[in-house]
Amino acid sequence: MVVKVYGPIKAACPQRVLACLLELGVDFELIGVDLDSNEHKQPGFLQKQPFGQVPVVEDEDFRLFESRAIIRYYATKYGDKNRKLYGTTLEEKALVDQWLEVEAHHFNDMVYTIVLQKLVIPKMGGKTDHDLVQNCEKKLEQVFDIYEQRLSKSSHLAGDWFTLADLSHLPGIRYLVNECELSHMVRDRKNVNLWWNDISNRPAWKKVMQLFHELS
Amino acid sequence: MAIKLYGAAGSTATLQVQACLAEKDLHYEFVSINMSYKEHKTPEFLSRNPFGQVPAFEDGDLKLFESRAITQYLAHTYADKGNDVIIKDPKKMAIVAVWIEVESQKFDPACSKLVWELGYKPMFGMTSDDVVVEENEKKLEQVLDVYESRLSQSKYLGGDSFTLADLHHLPVIKYLMGTKAKRLFEARPHVSAWVADIQSRPAWVKAITT
Which of A53, A97, A99, A109 best probes binding to B when mutated, by most B CB atoms within 10 angstroms? Predict the structure, then answer.
């Protein structure tokens, strides 16, 4: 039975899960959830995810939510398909976890706010808080400075190979270089630029982008 | 000593790691980082945590930052020491991982502003911002409603046993239970019982009294 992933392809967190499943060669069925009509806040969906957010994953009778918990589970379950994705030793795993935490707290908070203010709120008829956006952009530049320094020492965040820590950034950076018009944050930094080119050209991510263009 | 924790008294993230070290009955050296003197922004400290935040950690040659990466490293590496704070079965551990994310992505953001307004500001002689408090109490209530439902079906957040999913909440709860925000926890019977249970753990009592 294939893994069911509930969520729209255009949303960042389902993309994170799909990228991981594709890296591991795990078959899935994507079941769309219509955020515009508030499908994610209906009782039926809240049964699956009490916070009313996407994605949710159902694997036979096993259900999970929180994209970063989902990717950790599958990378562990199918560790033999890609040993380096979540580390082969406890120390490697700890470093992957470290940079996953960095993505979740330092990086994602800024990107989420920028996307909310610049894209979502205007679409819903509200006003962008430009001061807040500027503040977040400044903080995000500082985060990228730290990434630039880190990536001068290793080709990827947790070491010299692609891991969940790099994968977790793909949807957010995609937003930055496209709709958010902040590609200079990546392009102006030599090591970050090399890293982004590497991770965004992986076949699994390109497949996610193909689905994104087909289904949107 | 092989395990060193670089942190500050009063830092909830530092306390998360200390709680875990206590549960695992591990000896460690605590190196105090003086944040009033901006010691967390010195080049030496930035080489341990490039974001200039506490805690930072080392175990022999391994250097880590981000408290939840550190606790997970300790839980897996020292699985046979002290109390279990993770679950071996992969599917059960995945559920624990879900609620570890929930604390990290939902509970902590809702609480961090409250801890600042109701906990730290009074300590520094500053006045709380009632608008910020009201807004964040509303967010916390939404999260605690989900917790109330979850804890009516499960003894602990991650399942039948105490795990990191519960432990990560302890430092913030410690602060908020000393403020008016405690009424939000006390108003929900399952949440209230769970708070009492996890706060009474001997390892936690040891972590906050030593």
Answer: A97
In angstroms, what separates the C-alpha of A214 from chain B's closest C-alpha?
30
Question: Where is the domain boundary, B18, B53, B77?
Answer: B77
| pLDDT for residue A123 is more than 90 | no
Residue B83 lies in a domain: no
B168 with B120, same domain: the answer is yes
Cα dihedral across residues A89, A90, A91, A95: positive or negative: positive
ipTM over 0.90: no
Residue B15 lies in a domain: yes
- Statement to judge: residues B67 and B106 lie in one domain: no
Please indicate if any CB of chain B lies within 8 Å of the CB of A93. yes
- Is B28 found in the same domain as B119? no
pLDDT > 70 fraction of chain B, expressed in percent and rounded: 100
Identify whether residues B69 and B8 lie together within a single domain: yes
Please state, for a pLDDT cut of 90, what percent of chain B lies above it: 91
**What CATH code is carried by the domain that includes residue B10?**
3.40.30.10
Residues A114 and A117: their CA atoms lie apart, in Å, by 5
Which residues span the domain enclosing B171? 90-209
A149 in contact with chain B, both atoms CB, cutoff 8 A: yes
Closest partner residue to A68 among B67, B73, B101, by Cβ?
B101
Count how many domains chain B has: 2
- pLDDT tens digits, residue range B113-150? 999 999 888 888 889 999 999 999 999 999 999 999 99
